From TrEMBL:
Mg(2+) binds at S131, E163. PANTHER family: GALACTOKINASE-RELATED (PTHR10457:SF7), MEVALONATE KINASE/GALACTOKINASE (PTHR10457). HAMAP family: Galactokinase. This is Galactokinase. It catalyses: alpha-D-galactose + ATP = alpha-D-galactose 1-phosphate + ADP + H(+). Residues 222-273 form a coiled coil. NCBIfam families: gal_kin, PRK05322.1. Belongs to the GHMP kinase family. GalK subfamily. The gene is galK.
Length: 387
C-alpha cells in the first residue's frame, strides 16, 4: 500500500488535495474469548497491522461524498449531513454515514460536509473487523477535521452504538475497542462487564500470528449472530430464577455445573456453557501467557475452538478444516476468531515452520473444500490514529 497513490486517487476523484488529512484504523484479531463480550465476559483481542486508510477533507457545503477503493464499482456515494438515514443502496457507505449521524445525535458539532476516500488492506467481511475499522477511521477523521473534544474510548462507544442502532448489527464492544484502543505489541484483556482493561505485552519469541481466511461467503451471518445472543439471554433468564447474577460472565464453571439444570432448553444450556467456560478460559489463558507458558496458552486456544464447534456451533466445515489441519501440522494453538460461520482462524506458529505450515494447510483446505484459503502473517499494531 502506497499512501502517495491513495492521495493521488483522492485528487483524481475529488479534483483537489487541498486540506486533506490521512487516517488509519486497524482491523483486529481476537486471540481468545469468543462470544463472551455480550455475555459480560472477558475478551483478549489485539489490533493488527492491516486495516483501513481514510483520506479526508472538509467541504464548504453540507454534502458528504465517499468512495472506497474496495468497492470501486460502486463509485462515489453521496449524502447530506442533514439527511442521514440508512439506505440499502448506499451499501458500505452506511457505516461512515452511521458514524456521522451518531456523532451528531450525541451533539458533536459537525457543521459541514466532507469527502473521504477509503482503502482497506484487510479482507472485507472476513472476521477481522473491516467494519469496525471503517467506523473508527471515520470517527478519528471527524474528531480531527471538526476539532471535536472526544476521547478514544468515547469514539469506541459511539462506533458500537452506530453499528447497533444504525446498521442493525447487535455486536458487542470488542471489535471497536480493539480497533480504537489497540497498542503495538500488546493484546488487551477487556472485562466487558466492568469495562476495565489491561494491556498485556505479547512477546512471541520466534513465533508468529498466522491468520487463515476461509474465503467462505457468509450469508445470514447477522441473523445467526443475533440468534446466539438471544439464546444466551434466555439461558441467563432461566438461571436468574434462582441466582442473583447479571450476566453469564458472573459464573464460575462450578457454579454453572451446579445450576445448569435450571436451563431447560438443551441448546440454550450448551450456549451458556460455552459463554461461562470461555470466559474462565480467557482468564486462565492470559495468566499462562504472563507466566511465559505459551504451550498452555495454545492448548486453551484449541479448547476454545472445540467449545465454539460443539457447544456454540458457530464454526462449520471450512473453519474446522483449517483449525484441525493446523493442530496436525505443528501449530502451538489454533482456533476460529471473530463471529465465526466462515471468516478466519488464528494460529500461533513457529517462524521456521511457517512456510511448510501454510503449504500443507493450504493444500488440504483446497482439496477438501474446493477453493483456496488465504494466509496472512500479522503483527500487533496501534489503534486508530492520524498519520
Ligand atoms: C463479532 C462481534 C463482536 C464479538 C465477536 C465474537 O466480531 O462484533 O462483538 O461478539 O463477534 O466474539
Amino acid at each position: 500500500m502506497n499512501l502517495e497513490n491513495l492521495i493521488r486517487d483522492f485528487s483524481e476523484v475529488f479534483k483537489t488535495d487541498e486540506g486533506i488529512h490521512v487516517f488509519f484504523a486497524p482491523g483486529r484479531v481476537n486471540l481468545i474469548g469468543e462470544h463472551t463480550d455480550y455475555n459480560g465476559g472477558h475478551v483478549f483481542p489485539c489490533a493488527i497491522n492491516f486495516g483501513t486508510y481514510a483520506i479526508a477533507r472538509k467541504r464548504e457545503d453540507s454534502k458528504v461524498k465517499v468512495i472506497s477503493k474496495n468497492f470501486e464499482e460502486l463509485g462515489v456515494i453521496e449524502f447530506n449531513i442533514n439527511d442521514l438515514v440508512y439506505r440499502e443502496e448506499d451499501n458500505w457507505a452506511n457505516y461512515p454515514k452511521g458514524i456521522i449521524k451518531t456523532f451528531k445525535d450525541a451533539r458533536y458539532n459537525i457543521d459541514s460536509g466532507l469527502e473521504i476516500l477509503f482503502f482497506g488492506n484487510i479482507p472485507n467481511g472476513a472476521g477481522l473487523s473491516s467494519s469496525a475499522s471503517i467506523e473508527l477511521a471515520t470517527s478519528i477523521a471527524l474528531k480531527s477535521l471538526f476539532n471535536l473534544n472526544l476521547l478514544m474510548i468515547e469514539m469506541v462507544e459511539l462506533s458500537q452504538k452506530s453499528e447497533n442502532q444504525f446498521n442493525g448489527v447487535k455486536c458487542g464492544i470488542m471489535d471497536q475497542f480493539a480497533c480504537g484502543m489497540g497498542r503495538k505489541d500488546h493484546a488487551i484483556l477487556l472485562d466487558t462487564n466492568k469495562m476495565r482493561y489491561e494491556y498485556v505485552p505479547i512477546k512471541l519469541d520466534g513465533i508468529s500470528i498466522v491468520i487463515a481466511n476461509t474465503n467462505k461467503h457468509r450469508d445470514l451471518m447477522d441473523s445467526k449472530y443475533n440468534e446466539r445472543r438471544s439464546e444466551c439471554e434466555n439461558a441467563l433468564r432461566a438461571l436468574q430464577e434462582k441466582l442473583e447474577i447479571f450476566s453469564l460472565g458472573d459464573l464460575s464453571e462450578e457454579e454453572f455445573e451446579e445450576n445448569k439444570h435450571l436451563i431447560k432448553n438443551e441448546i440454550e444450556r450448551k450456549r451458556a456453557k460455552h459463554a461461562v467456560y470461555e470466559n474462565q478460559r480467557t482468564i486462565k489463558a492470559v495468566r499462562a501467557l504472563t507466566e511465559g507458558d505459551i504451550e498452555k496458552f495454545g492448548r486453551l486456544m484449541n479448547e476454545s475452538h472445540i467449545s465454539l464447534r460443539d457447544d456454540y456451533e458457530v464454526t462449520g466445515i471450512e473453519l474446522d478444516t483449517l483449525v484441525e489441519a493446523a493442530w496436525r501440522n505443528g501449530a502451538i494453538g489454533s482456533r476460529m476468531t471473530g463471529a465465526g460461520f466462515g471468516g478466519c482462524t488464528v494460529s500461533l506458529v513457529r517462524n521456521d515452520e511457517i512456510e511448510s505450515f501454510i503449504e500443507k494447510i493450504g493444500e488440504e483446505y483446497e482439496r477438501r473444500i474446493g477453493y483456496k484459503a488465504d494466509f496472512y502473517i500479522v503483527s500487533i499494531g496501534d489503534g486508530a490514529r492520524r498519520i
